[in-house]
Design a protein that fits this description.
Strand content: under 5%
Radius of gyration: 19 Å
Keywords: Cell membrane, Membrane, Transmembrane, Transmembrane helix
Protein name: YghB_1 protein
Number of helices: 11
Oligomer: single chain
Order of helices and strands: HHHHHHHHHHH
Membrane topology: Multi-pass membrane protein
Low-confidence stretches: 6-11
Family: Belongs to the DedA family.
Main location: membrane
Number of strands: 0
Length: 206
C-alpha cells in the first residue's frame, strides 16, 4: 500500500518515479518523439504537452543515471517539428477556415509575422495555429521555409538545452517538481518578453 510519505516524496522529486521507466531509452525515445510529432502535425492533438515534454526530456538527460542523450532527442525532434509545421502550412494553403480563435490568431500573425514564425511555438494554444494561418494568408513560401527552419532550431534546441542546464543544477535535481513548474511558466514568459521588447522598440522609433 502506498503511504502518504511516498506520495509526497514523488511530488517533491518525481525522478524517483520516472527513473525506472527511463532505464530503457529505446522504448522511451519513440514516445517522446511521438508526443512532439503529433502536437506539431495535428491541431486535434494541441492538448499534448510537446514543449513541456522537450524541457522535461532535456532535464532528464542531465541526470547521469538516466540513459537519455540530447543527440538522440534532437535526431527525432528536429525533423518532426519542421515537417509538422510544413504539413500544416500546406493544409492552410488548401483551405479557408474561420472561427473566433482563428480570427485572433490571424490578427496576431498579421501584426507579428516574423516573431510568430520564429518564436510562436512558445505561445500556448495559439502557436498551434500559426502555420495554418500562414498558409491561409498566402505567406511567402520561401520565407516560410527559411523561418520554419530557424524557428524549429530555436524551439528544439532552446527547450532541450534550457531543460538540460536547469536539470544539471543540484537544487533542481533534488527538487524536480520546482523545475517542472518552471518548465510550464518560463517558455511563455520568454516569448511575451520578446514581444514586449519588440513593441517597445517600434514605439520608441516613432
Amino acid at each position: 500500500m502506498i503511504e502518504l510519505t511516498d506520495v509526497l516524496a514523488i511530488i517533491r522529486n518525481p525522478v524517483l518515479f520516472i527513473k525506472p521507466i527511463m532505464m530503457n531509452p529505446w522504448l522511451v525515445y519513440p514516445v517522446l518523439w511521438a508526443i512532439v510529432g503529433f502536437e506539431s502535425y495535428f491541431v486535434l492533438f494541441a492538448w499534448l504537452p510537446a514543449e513541456t515534454t522537450m524541457f522535461l526530456a532535456g532535464s532528464l538527460a542531465a541526470h547521469q543515471e538516466i540513459p537519455i542523450q540530447l543527440w538522440w532527442l534532437w535526431l527525432g525532434y528536429l525533423p518532426v517539428v519542421y515537417l509538422g509545421w510544413r504539413f500544416k502550412f500546406r493544409r492552410g494553403l488548401a483551405r479557408n477556415t474561420r472561427n473566433s480563435r482563428m480570427d485572433d490568431t490571424v490578427d496576431f500573425f498579421n501584426q507579428h509575422a516574423k516573431l510568430a514564425m520564429l518564436f510562436g511555438r512558445y505561445i500556448p494554444v495559439l502557436g498551434i495555429f500559426i502555420p495554418l494561418i500562414a498558409g491561409e494568408s498566402r505567406y511567402d513560401q520561401a520565407i516560410f521555409q527559411r523561418e520554419n527552419i530557424i524557428g524549429t532550431l530555436i524551439w528544439v534546441f532552446g527547450s532541450t538545452l534550457i531543460g538540460y542546464y536547469l536539470g544539471s543544477i543540484p537544487f533542481f535535481q533534488q527538487h524536480f517538481s520546482v523545475l517542472i513548474a518552471g518548465i510550464i511558466v518560463v517558455p511563455a514568459g520568454i516569448y511575451y518578453a520578446v514581444t514586449y521588447l519588440n513593441s517597445l522598440f517600434h514605439h520608441l522609433r516613432r
